[in-house]
Amino acid sequence: GRIRDRRAPECFELPRQLDQLAPLRSRIASMCADQPESFVHMLSLAAFEAATNIIRHGGEALRGAPLCIALKRDDTAACVELLYDGLPFSAIVPEPDLSGASSGGFGLFIMENAVDRVSYDVPLPGMVRISLYKAFFAEENPAMDGHGDKEHYRP
C-alpha cells in the first residue's frame, strides 16, 4: 500500500446533511493520528460545530450545494477549512446562556474554545470560508506560549 504524507493538504466535499458528517471526524483523526486523543477530539468538535452551523443556518436555497473541506497541517499545527456557498454568519461570539433557558447559541462558543483560532473570510463573492487552527504542543510553540499573538499564527 501507499503511505500518505499527513502534511499534504486533503480536500473533499460532503453533502450538507447532518447525518453525512462522519467522514469529517474520521479524516481529521487520520490527519492528526500522531497527536493526543484530546487534540483530535477538540479539533473534530470545532469542525463538526462549524459544519453543523453551515447546514442549519445556510439557507434552503443552497441546501444542495456541497460543503468543501480542506485539511492542512505542518510540523506545528493543524487547520480545517470549510468553504461553502452562502452568506457569512456573525463571527461575534456571544456568551452562551448556561442557565438552561436556551437550547442554542453554543456552537460559536464551542468553536472558539476548542481551537486556538477561528477565522472567517469571503474569498469570492457568495463563498464563505471558516478556518480552524489548532497548534500542536502549544506549550513548546513560541508563537502560542502566551508571549506571542496567536491571532497572527497561521500554518
Looking at this protein, list some descriptive labels.
alpha+beta; single chain; 155 residues; globular; 5-stranded antiparallel sheet
Could you explain the architecture of this structure?
There is one protein chain. Helix content is 25%, strand content 25%. With 155 residues, it is an alpha+beta fold. Strand 4 and strand 5 (127-135) form a beta hairpin. Helix 1 packs antiparallel against helix 2 and helix 2 (37-57) packs antiparallel against helix 3 (107-114). The radius of gyration is 16 Å and the shape is globular. 25% of the residues are buried. Mean pLDDT is 80; it is low at 140-155.
Number of strands: 5
Average residue pLDDT: 80
Which oligomerization state do the chains in this entry correspond to?
single chain
Instruction: Sketch the topology as an H/E string, one letter per element.
Output: EHHEEHEE
Uncertain residue ranges: 140-155
Helix fraction, binned, reads 25-40%
Strand order of the largest sheet: 1-2-3-5-4
Percentage of β-strand residues: 15-25%
Counting DSSP H or I runs of 4 or more residues, the number of helices is 3
Q: Based on helices, strands and strand pairing, what is the structural class?
A: alpha+beta
* Main beta-sheet annotation: 5 strands, antiparallel
Estimate the global geometry from the Cα principal axes: globular
N- to C-terminal distance: 29 Å
Cα-atom Rg, whole angstroms? 16 Å
